[in-house]
Design brief:
This protein is an alpha+beta fold. It has three helices and three strands; from the N terminus they run E-H-H-E-E-H. The protein has a three-stranded mixed β-sheet.
């Protein structure tokens, strides 16, 4: 792991990028405190496809129904009913 203050990093950015390409972790610091990390670019994340889990997820028919004591606690029923 390599730690550089921002002012140092400005002067040696190309060298820091080369270190990252070789697998080193580079931390940028401001006043001695870490604020950022330079990491290798992993490419664009795979795009999500809506409905890709159709048939794999099941929701119970009574999912939205609360037991009476919970409904009462949330003010959805009058106390004692």
């Amino acid at each position: 792991m390599v730690i550089r203050n921002i002012s140092e990093a400005k002067a040696e950015l190309s060298a820091l990028i080369a270190m990252v390409q070789q697998g080193d972790e580079v931390i940028l610091a401001k006043s001695g405190k870490p604020v950022a990390k330079i990491v290798p670019y992993g490419g664009i994340a795979q795009r999500r496809v809506p409905g890709s889990m159709v048939g794999e997820i099941w929701i119970a028919p009574d999912f939205d129904e609360l037991p009476d004591d919970m409904a009462e606690a949330f003010g959805m029923l009058e106390p004692g009913k």
